[in-house]
Design a protein that fits this description.
The chain is 68% helix and 0% strand. It is mainly α. The chain has a single domain, classed as Serine Threonine Protein Phosphatase 5, Tetratricopeptide repeat. Helix 2 runs antiparallel to helix 3 and helix 4 (73-82) runs antiparallel to helix 5.
């Protein structure tokens, strides 16, 4: 990136930590392009850090889709929440709730 902003300056996001402010528009565009390149080359975690830092909704949704496809629903929920992508978030939330209900019913039967 020609602006002087380096990927190494992006902090790890922790659970859900965003840094949407303090990035000028040219740096943001350069970061998003780099994030898309990284995502397309399979470097998902670095791409995710960039998408979170820039608040790039499309990238966050792509990360959510990637996690959902790989059955990592907790991380998919985080990405959809940050995007925001309410439809995708709701779909995974509903599926998760159904699974928990099923587990509870199974546990009740075992304890009877």
């Amino acid at each position: 990136m020609e602006s002087g902003l380096k990927l190494s300056t992006i902090k790890h996001p922790g659970f859900i930590k965003t840094v949407k402010s303090e990035i000028n528009s040219s740096d943001k565009v350069a970061l998003i392009r780099k994030g898309n390149e990284l995502f397309n080359s399979g470097k998902y975690e670095i791409a995710k850090r960039i998408f979170i830092t820039t608040g790039y909704s499309d990238g966050l949704i792509r990360m959510g889709d990637y996690y959902a496809k790989n059955k990592n629903h907790a991380d998919a929920l985080k990405m959809y929440w940050l995007a925001p992508a309410p439809e995708q978030f709701e779909q995974i939330s509903e599926r998760t709730a159904m699974i928990i209900r099923k587990w509870l019913k199974e546990e009740e039967k075992v304890n009877e």
